[in-house]
Amino acid sequence: MKQEIALNINGDTYELLVSPNQTLLEVLRDNLGLMGTKRGCDLGACGACTVLLKGEAYLSCLMLAMDAVDKEIVTIEGLGGRGNLDPLQSAFVEQGALQCGFCTPGMILTAKAMLSEEDHPTEDIIKKRMAGNLCRCTGYKKVIEALQSVSEQTAEEE
Amino acid sequence: MERELTVVGNRMPMLDAAAKAKGTAQFIDDLVLPGMLHGKILRSPLPHAKILHIDTSKAEKLSGVKGVMTGTDIPDRKYGIVPKAKDEYALAKTKVRYIGDEVAAVCAVDPEIAEEALELIKVDYEELPAVFDPMEAIKEGAPLVHADVQKNISASIRKEFGDVEKAFGESDFIFEDTFYSQAVNHAPLEPHGALAQYDPKGELTIWSSTQIPFFLRRNLSTTLLVPESKLRVIKPKVGGGFGQKVDMFAKDFCACWFAMNIGRPVKFIYDREEVFIGTRQRHPVYLSVKTGLNKEGNILAQQFKAYADGGAYNSTAPVMITLMGFFLMIPYKVPNLLHEGYHVYTNKPVGGAMRGHGIPQARFAVERQLDMIAERMDLDPGEIRIRNSIHAGEPHPAKFVINTCGFVDTVKKAAEGIGWAQKRGKLPFGRGVGMAGGSFPSGVSNMSHISSGAVVQLGREGAVNVLTGAADIGQGAETVIGQIVAEELGVLLEDVRVTAADTGITPLDPGTFGSGVTVRAGNAARLAAISVKNKLFEIVSEKLEASVDDLVAEKRKIYVKGSPDKGMTLSDALKAYQYGDHPMPIVGRGSWMAPTTEPTTLLKENGNFAPNYSFMTQAAEVEVDPQTGRVKLLKMAAAHDCGKMINPLLVEGQLEGSVVGGMGQALYEDVIVEKGQVMNPSFLDYGFPTAMEMPEIEAIEVETIDPLGPFGAKEAGEGTQVSPAPAIVNAIYDAIGIDFMEMPVTPEKILKALEEKKK
Asked: Is the ipTM of this complex over 0.90?
């Protein structure tokens, strides 16, 4: 039986009728058209479907939509201001930390969660925290460099 | 150019980078059309079987199902990427040849119903004996994967340059070694998909995750029996391809078929397991190399034999085994070469083009053996490579025309980057350095008539629209083409919009393969831009009272060479053009094909293969843990001659991705198949490198200015992938003194070899 739920996504509330077995990924993409969240493996192995729940990174393909009720959800569409890029997004763009771009939304959101928890992550910490987000194009080097530059920038501002 | 470059040569983000970072870039699965249906494919559970009967009646009756199709419904037209090697139906007609072969397709109002319907299709099979190893498959009496292909050898080549027998007779040393290069999956992050829509007028539009829209159009046309003029292939953003998205697949055909027959849009998206099992992989190859040298270490002759495990179908078979042989002739001078290559069918997943396309396997064997030879002859591995390098302008044994060659410099600089002189043979047990060389063609010039077209439009406000057929699959082709056009027209990159890869709008282009895009499509776009510029210059020359030949366009200005003050803005020039009653926009056309003697004759007589050739050396430092057998790649110094770099940021990206990909092949990745069943068809089980494994990477540029490349450019996409794996395996030898002859070099193999060495 489908059930009525309300999800808070990128600051907006959506009232939805979902099946108990529907994943958050399916609801985001198929019900709401929030296509920035990518389906790479549907098995929790690639990180392309990463979203933020209360600021923490979650794999939306492994999470039931019903379990996301009452948790502020941020998808890639919720990052950055109107027409603007978040500093992390800018760093990915400017420093060539993306190629095909399919893993990029997930990468950026995982990085966002990490940088909100870690003030000055070392390269080792960055590598560990990003290890769940697979990329077949970049070889990760520029991704890590982009994250380091944002973390340094934030440190300077503080 | 009469001035400094202002756009070409700059580190610039991709034109679509912001859209990708914002999540608004649209990939195939992000496209939704009103009334769209969802398709799924039923695949064979058996490696080899006759299809006796298929009962689809229950599936058809399931509520929500809108269509079911099987091989009996479709025209008797085989397809394949190589015209002479077509051997595949979108859905099997009478026989399945591997676990994963497509048997039936369903479309329904949602993907779950389509899945459910697949389970209701009943297929009666008569299982046939199967064969899983190419060396078994070529034996007399082995099961035949395709009844009409004897010994399962579907493509073969025997090509000799010079006189190999004589040269071996004159050699002071002869070495013969055998190697094995494993199956690797491309594993692009985006799974394959297609979405087709049919217009009642008879026009079919398909969006597909393809690398080669125009070839896909041709394959769809010949199998669906729809004229190419009624077929429009559009490539949305493609989430990586690496060669895996070169072929047509069942999803393309079936989406079109259902759309035509049902009248509603139909989308197919493969799941990750289907990508691993039912698309393409790097061919596993058994290789043997016999090399004859003189006392000084100069190669006199090489005899190369390769048996490629092609799996159940041909895909690029004849091309792959040909490339493998021809590119043994670079970067080393091999005055006499005999190449024998065989593509062998087995009841396994299908081999296809993958970054380097046959050449990485060959390079693994040759580069490994060169190190072994150096050791046996007491030569330095760097020295033996330098000694045998080909050079620009020298006569080439296969008649390749090498206009620029930075190979020797790449050896020296990679060695310097890794600290070769201080480290090779001098590090403590468990640490080592190794190197490998390589070279790659920038697209092929001979063998086929391959040309690329472009149209450039310059509008009233100075905005530029480039129409190109080139297929950007994430490497940044559109950005590189945009930079080339901006440079030539003297505008900024932000003034340029690139409209690409839509067979209904853009000019013909072969697509993304063979590392030919920058040179081929880049030259075409440049010519189109020059044509626009010339039209504008004619008007400007009258206004400025200067000769057309003396004009320069730069940063939205046109001026007389040497006198920047004597000029006008592009905006004023365009006004003058328009007020002179000339039609707007100004349109220029360009078309480019590599210069070639007589195409298609390369197998019979020697000649040049590519417009130009990139050269590279990669040097690795590794650490081997003798307790666990684990290898850590500490650093890769990669020196690369890719001509003039149009965009160094993107070149580095190619290089870094290749290093990590090559590390995966050398150490981790292997598509494990048991009795035809892929045992690790998921990211979790397959395990390609993550950020954790990323080594330090030093990209070293060795710039040459090639006369045929646009602004001197050569390829930078695939060549980067040929040498990382052998460099790593060579470094493992330096670390622990063991020669590994097959990949991947797993901890199990290391521990076993260390154990045996003790005895």
From this structure: yes
